[in-house]
Amino acid sequence: MEGIRRQYSEEFKKDAVSHSLTSEKTVEEVARDLGITHSNLRRWRAQYSKNGELAFPGKDKQRLTPQEEEIRRLKKELYEVSQERDILKKALAIVRHEETS
After folding, report:
1. Of 3-7, 28-32, 52-56, which one has max mean pLDDT?
2. According to CATH, what is the number of the domain 7-60?
3. How many CB atoms are closer than 10 A to CB 30?
4. pTM summary value
5. pLDDT tens digits for range 40-69
6. pLDDT band at 37 (very low <50, low <70, confident <90, very high)
7. Distance between CA 54 and CA 64 in Å, rounded?
8. Model confidence over 69-93: pLDDT tens digits?
9. Among 8, 72, 71, which residue's Cα sits nearest to residue 44?
10. Is 32 exposed, middle or buried (0-12, 13-18, 19+ CB in 10 A)?
11. 6 in Cβ contact with 59 (< 8 Å)
12. What burial class does residue 14 get, using C-beta atoms within 10 Å of its C-beta: 0-12 exposed, 13-18 middle, 19+ buried?
């Protein structure tokens, strides 16, 4: 029988990580006190140390740094401009073909 997978809020995860970092207790003791597994707490600590305040965005959400947002915007713009260029190339080829016919 499979267990029900619990979901924790971003606030809970950040509080748990903060508590584990400032507490005199071990990760295992803090996890037990909070009613979570120590592996969850260790994973959350790793995510927080890697991503800081951008950690724990939630399911199907994505937090981006300002640089990543700019890259995303520029990639989208490049795609749109490339599409426009390709359309113009095809239109020009059609016009040239009609002129030679």
Report:
1. 28-32
2. 1.10.10.60
3. 20
4. 0.56
5. 999 999 999 988 877 887 665 667 778 888
6. very high
7. 7
8. 899 899 999 999 999 999 999 999 9
9. 8
10. middle
11. no
12. middle
Which tokens in the block code for residue 89?
Answer: 């190339």
d(CA 31, CA 5): 16
List phi, psi (to 5°) of 4: -80, 130
Taking the C-alpha atoms of residue 44 and residue 21, their distance in angstroms, rounded to an integer, is 11
Q: Cite the beta strand spans of 1-76 per DSSP E.
A: none
Cα–Cα distance for residue pair 23/19, rounded to 1 Å? 6
Distance CA 81, CA 71 (A): 15
Residue 49: count of CB within 10 angstroms of its CB: 11
Residue carrying structure tokens 């401009």: 81
- Can you tell me which residue has the tokens 């800081």? 52
